Amino acid sequence: MKIEEYREIIKTIKQYQGLPKDCSKMLITKYNRFHPFTLKSILNQEIQWRTKINHRQVYKNENNNFYQRYFQAFQKGEPPGILLRMACKLKTCPALLANKVLKEYYLSSENDLKVTKNDLQKMMKDTTLISHASLAYEVYLCVLYDNQYGAIANSVSDCTGQEYEIKLEHYLIEHKIPFLNEELLRTKGYDKTPDCKLEIPIAINDFVINWIESKAQFGTPETHKSYVKGQFLSYWNRFGPGLVIYWFGYVDNIVQSKESRFIVMDHFPEKITYMDPYSIISSVK
C-alpha cells in the first residue's frame, strides 16, 4: 500500500464519529479495493494508538466521574446504550469506559461492597456478576459492541495470530523446509525467538534467510519500527538474516532498499532456492 493511501484511510478513521465496529463496516465499503482484513488491522492499530494517547487525558482527571454521568443519564430515563454513546463522544473504547465506570460504581459511597481488580475482570467477562442490573446491561453492551478492546477483541487477536502461525508452518511442511517453531526454540533456552527458525537456510530473490516471523496484521511505519527494535534485530543477532511476513499487507515505505538484516513480504514466497548439499561436498573435494 502506498503511504498516501494509508494516510487517507487514517484520516477517514479520525474523522469518523461512531463506534469502531461501525467504522470498520464503513471502511470496507469505502475502500473495497483493499482486503477487509487489511482495513480492520489498520483500524485496530489506530484505535490502540488513540487509546494510549487519550487514556491519561480521559481517565486520569479526577474531576471526571463517569459513573455519576451514567447515573444522571439513567435517572433522566435515557434509553440503554448510555455508555456506548458516552464512549463515542470521548473517542475511547466502550469496554475500557465500562471497566472505569464499574470501578467507580464499586468505589462510590452508595456501595459498601469491596471488590478486587480480579473481581472486576470477572465481571467484565460475566456481567451477571454485577449487582446493579441496569449497569450490568450497559457493561454487557460495551463488551458486545467493542471489537477493538477487551476480552472478545483479545480472543480474536490471539486466535488470528495462532491461525497464521499454523498457516506458515503448513507452508514450510508443504515445501519440505525443515524448521523449529517458537515452542521448540524455547525448550532449547532461547528467550526471544522468531515463529520459525529454519534448520537449513533458503534463498528468496537471492537473499538468504534463516528465520521467518509471522505477523497477522498490517505493517504500519510505527509498528514496524517498534518490531525492528524489539524483535527483528534480536533475531538477526542470534540467527542471521530472515523474513518478516505481514499477512495483511504493509506500507511500501517500510521496506528499505539497503536493508540486509531481513526482507519483508505479505505472503509466503513462491520462488525459493534450496541449498544444494552436493555443491558443498564437491567444493570440499
Mean pLDDT: 87
Radius of gyration: 24 Å
The computed structural class is alpha/beta
Helix-strand sequence: HHHHHHHHHEHEEHEEEH
Q: How many strands, which pairing sense, and closed or not: the largest β-sheet?
A: 6 strands, mixed
Question: What spatial form do the alpha-carbon principal axes imply?
Answer: elongated
Q: Percent helix among the residues?
A: 55-70%
Tally of individual helices: 12
Low-pLDDT sequence parts: 281-285
**What proportion strand?**
5-15%
Query: How many beta-strand runs?
Result: 6
Instruction: Report the span from N to C terminus.
Output: 49 Å
Characterise this structure:
The chain has 285 residues and is α/β, with parallel strands linked by helices. Helices cover 56% and strands 11% of the residues. It contains twelve helices and six strands. It has helices spanning 3-15, 20-30, 36-59, 66-75, 82-90, 94-107, 117-125, 133-145, 151-174, 182-187, 221-239, 277-284, and strands at residues 179-181, 196-204, 207-215, 242-246, 262-265, 273-274. Strands 1, 2, 3, 4, 5 and 6 form a six-stranded mixed sheet that branches. α1 crosses α3 (36-59), α2 (20-30) runs antiparallel to α3 (36-59) and α6 runs antiparallel to α8 (133-145). The longest helix is centred in the N-terminal third of the chain and has 24 residues, at 36-59. It is elongated. The protein starts with a helix and ends with a helix. Residues 281-285 have low confidence and may be disordered.
